[in-house]
Specification:
disordered N terminus; alpha+beta; Nuclear Transport Factor 2, Chain: A; five-stranded antiparallel sheet
Length: about 200
């Protein structure tokens, strides 16, 4: 079974709740990009948002704002090569659906929080923007956004929550599932389908 990572899920949700349209041929300022992502995203996290609407919006914007294929290939790690091309496509589809379902459930608890950008630094070919979520109760949650410029617009490649990488955590979880099923990567597809209450393709 999957473990859930609520702060990580919330970070994904915050990022996926709003999308920006950058000028043609030029990525927006990274700090401004993340500031608007977080600030406007949190405004949509309240419990008054119907769950179905939250899930639909999350699905749409997760696909728009994240490097979904790159993240999917990273989290499956070395097992990607063991999949057939058809299984690779099945995994990417199931991974997206699982992420949307698992993390959209975490959205409402962050309604009413405050968001602010605290810094920025280059890291190889990425830009890392530092921020924090200040909750009505509990300590602030530190969120570091790893951005890459893809054709003049930013895509989110990873999110660190309190210094824990979202994609590294999910990669470890998927590897454990495969290892606990005799090292068979196809077992992960079955677990994802079970989580999604989805029948195997015929």
């Amino acid at each position: 079974m999957f473990r859930h990572f609520p702060p990580i899920g919330a970070a994904v949700a915050i990022a996926a709740l709003i999308t920006l349209t950058p000028p043609a041929g030029a990525a927006p300022d990274p700090r401004a990009f993340v500031d608007q992502l977080g600030t406007q995203g949190i405004e949509m996290l309240g419990p008054q948002v119907p769950p179905a609407q939250r899930v639909a919006r999350f699905r749409q914007l997760f696909q728009a704002d994240f490097d979904v294929d790159g993240i999917g290939r990273f989290v499956i790690g070395r097992y990607w090569r063991d999949f057939t091309p058809a299984q690779q496509q099945q995994f990417l589809r199931l991974f997206q659906a699982y992420t949307v379902q698992a993390y959209s459930k975490q959205l409402s608890q962050y309604g009413g929080a405050q968001f602010r950008v605290t810094g920025m630094r280059p890291l190889g070919g990425e830009v890392v923007v530092n921020s924090e979520v200040i909750r009505p109760s509990g300590p602030p949650v530190r969120i570091d956004w790893h951005l890459i410029d893809v054709g003049g617009e930013y895509k989110i490649e990873d999110v660190d929550v309190d210094r824990v990488s979202m994609i590294a955590s999910q990669r470890d979880e998927f590897a454990r599932i495969i290892e606990n099923n005799s090292g068979q990567p196809a077992a992960l597809l079955a677990v994802l389908r079970q989580q999604l209450n989805e029948r195997p393709a015929t």
